[in-house]
Automatic annotation (TrEMBL):
GO terms for molecular function: homogentisate 1,2-dioxygenase activity. This is Homogentisate 1,2-dioxygenase. Residues 93-233 form the Homogentisate 1,2-dioxygenase N-terminal domain. Its EC number is 1.13.11.5. It comes from Arsukibacterium indicum. Keywords: Dioxygenase, Iron, Metal-binding, Oxidoreductase.
Amino acid sequence: MRKWASFPLKEGDVSRQAHADFPQQAIYERETGRSGFFGPATHFHHTHAPTGWSDWQGPLRPHLFNFNEIEQNKTMSPWAVPYLLFNSHCKMRTWRLTDSMNKLARNADGDELLFIHEGSAELYCDYGHLSVRDGDYIVIPRSTMWRLVPNEPMFILLIEATNDSYQLPEKGLVGNHAIFDPAMLDTPKINDAFKAQYSEDSWQVEVKRHGQVSVITYPYNPLDAVGWHGDLAVMRINWRDIRPLMSHRYHLPPSAHTTFVAQRFVVCTFVPRPIESDPGALKVPFYHNNDDYDEVLFYHAGDFFSRDNIEKGMVTFHPAGFTHGPHPKAFAAGREYKKKFTDEVAVMLDTRDALEIGDAALATENPDYVNSWKTRPQD
Ligand SMILES: [Fe+2]
């Protein structure tokens, strides 16, 4: 057993409540925190923006990628697309699929999370049939056999929980039915569409294990279950089903928007919500260094209110050890309470271990991103 030293202290001019009622002349609050947003933390009150650097050298830096430009050979296999951001506990990739998969996929390395950025499809898997659309998260348990039949071209974000599984967060004070009711989780059905694909035609399964693909051939379609019972299944939730926690008086940390949890990373979802309205409340994300986590944001839809020049399909990667926060224009707009509502939708991946960047992602990087905070609001 071990515990953090715990001693709430204060030095100099401070606000008593984090993210609200900052001292005069010190409008820049910076949170430095451990264990995500759950460990010891200190809030500094600065007179200059913590992102106001004039130069930056060396390998640690924030990254901006445009995943719309990821090169991909035309492939029907999710295992043929490159890792973009990855470590030994998770693998993020994007996959464009236009034609029906002609083989079944099976990931023996871990659970796979699909986020449908664009398009719609029919999903057939061990558990039956499910129609999927943009904005869907689909959790595919490890070693499930599955295939997609697109109705329109698809752009899918995949996050593998390597040697791990996806679970739901504890919802604590707000109870089991907040954020989304577990009854909103959809599962595949053994329905007419599923029965219509039973066949005696030969089918192959591409199984990925330890990063290598093996191909198993059946002289029939192995998606032939006539029924199942149990408490393990493919499950789906759409971001539109998420009813976000919010407070009109307090900017909640990203952890309030946690959607799925694995052992060494979390996936959070930012969905439309009102902006904080209390006069003293911070109205944009606070400056912070989340010192134990690498943070990745995939921008799905809407206007990304804390960033300038970000479009859907782009990805920011803020490694641990790097202080970040709103861009200057967004910070100034927050001070003036210009926006009353944010319509942004974004998927966040926070990893406890350092992420590597794949070559395919590097090829889409905007090297000037580190300078994007340079204009101070008073300039
Ligand atoms: Fe962050």
